[in-house]
């Protein structure tokens, strides 16, 4: 069989599959980061998520000071930190402490109490009860989009019966994302572990459906676009690589766990 034909047949099948189809499926079409985390454990988490048998430390997520390399035209969230926080808590490797909006809300409540606005006998907000972050995790991200449609279209043009798909091939793109996670011991400042993750998928603009195994429910705002799904998958891959290193760490002395029903 002609080598060019062998090269283009998989893309041709994808083009044909994407034409003229429209359906709605509840709970489908999201990113690989799915479900929830909390007192009930990792609920509806991705089967691809690698977990720990017990947490090794408290963890704070830190924004990358250099920002994240993707275009604002993708309409993605400004930071992947909430996404990584969900992964870290679902994996059970860490007890996650909030150093973002949740912490600001706590400080605000303390200010209201100090100003005499809140009741003084309440114990919801009290100085000296916050948990320290024993480790910090910093994410890094690079996203790229390569136009593969013109190359595919050129091959299709030279093959009889397939040259009618040239226009459709122009919609095909390869989307790539590479993510990194850096784990630091806050007591010693030593970088304890580092991991990278990457993913590449074909995106077809015909039906707006990203191809590849990226199913699941909403991923903290990263399931609204094909670009977001690719990035979520890259962070999932980086997280799984990191867990292999975290499992070797000796657990630090952890603060008391949050009280749950039947457990105080």
TrEMBL record:
**InterPro entries, per database record:** Curli_assmbl/transp-comp_CsgG
* Matches recorded under PROSITE patterns: PROKAR_LIPOPROTEIN (PS51257)
What span is annotated as the signal peptide, if there is one?
Answer: 1-17
Keyword annotations: Signal
Which Pfam families does UniProt cross-reference here? CsgG
Q: What is this protein called?
A: Curli biogenesis system outer membrane secretion channel CsgG
């Amino acid at each position: 069989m002609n080598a060019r034909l062998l090269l283009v047949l998989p893309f041709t099948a994808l083009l044909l599959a994407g034409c003229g189809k429209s359906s709605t499926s509840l709970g489908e079409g999201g990113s690989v980061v799915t479900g929830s985390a909390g007192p009930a454990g990792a609920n509806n988490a991705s089967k691809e998520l690698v977990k720990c048998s017990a947490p090794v430390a408290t963890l704070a997520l830190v924004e990358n000071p250099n920002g994240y390399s993707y275009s604002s035209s993708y309409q993605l969230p400004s930071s992947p930190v909430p996404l990584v926080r969900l992964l870290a808590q679902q994996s059970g490797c860490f007890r996650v402490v909030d150093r973002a909006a949740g912490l600001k809300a706590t400080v605000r409540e303390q200010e209201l109490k100090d100003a005499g606005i809140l009741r003084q006998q309440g114990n919801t907000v009290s100085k000296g009860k916050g948990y320290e972050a024993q480790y910090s995790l910093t994410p890094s991200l690079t996203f790229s989009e390569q136009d593969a449609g013109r190359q595919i279209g050129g091959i299709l043009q030279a093959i009889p019966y397939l040259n009618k798909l040239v226009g459709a091939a122009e919609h095909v793109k390869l989307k790539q994302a590479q993510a990194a996670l850096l784990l630091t011991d806050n007591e010693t400042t030593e970088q304890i572990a580092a991991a990278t993750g990457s993913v590449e998928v074909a995106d077809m603009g015909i039906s707006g459906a990203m191809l590849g195994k990226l199913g699941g429910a909403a991923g903290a705002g990263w399931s609204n676009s094909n670009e977001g799904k690719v990035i979520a998958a890259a962070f999932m891959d980086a997280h799984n690589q990191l867990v292999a290193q975290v499992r070797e760490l000796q657990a630090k002395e952890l603060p008391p766990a949050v009280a749950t029903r039947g457990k105080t």
